[in-house]
Every structure is written in C-alpha cells, then in structure tokens.
Fold:
Amino acid sequence: MRAEHDAQTAVGIGGQAPVQNGLFVTFVLSAYIRELGYRATVVADPTREALAVAAGLGALNADGRLVVPKLGAKVYVADVIRTDLPLAADG
Structure:
C-alpha cells in the first residue's frame, strides 16, 4: 500500500489509512480464496517486510522499511495471507 507516512509512528487517521486499506484488501482477497475452496488465513507477520524482500519486491533501508523502485520508502506492507492455493512463480 502506498503510504505518505510511516504507519508505525504516524498517529491519527492520515497515518493509519494505509493500514486500514491493507486490512480491507487482505480480508477481501482471503475471502475470495476461501470461496474458491482453498484455505486462507490473514496473519500479522512481524517479518512481512523481509518476506516482501524475499519475494523480490524491493530492499530494506537502514531503518528496516521496504523501499521499492516506484514509490521509494512510501510503502506499507499489509499482513500476510497464508493459503494452500496452488501458485506458480511468474518471474
């Protein structure tokens, strides 16, 4: 999710909007996966930034925040969806 501010330090709805958007997206996506007949669980994983790096989405900066080519460090990584849906690597 695009984030103008660091959601861990920004208070108020302006700083928390990416968190709310992430909750909505992970809820809807996991519900859709379950409708397809697979298991899907949303997990608040503290290593989600590291998982995003392992997936090739970007790199971690000195503060431990994900930095992506298009948005820089203005990114919030939503919770992880664990599923048994068979996925194929595309890269």
The two ends are 21 Å apart (CA to CA). Residues 57 and 68 are 6 Å apart (CA to CA). The first helix runs from residue 12 to 35.
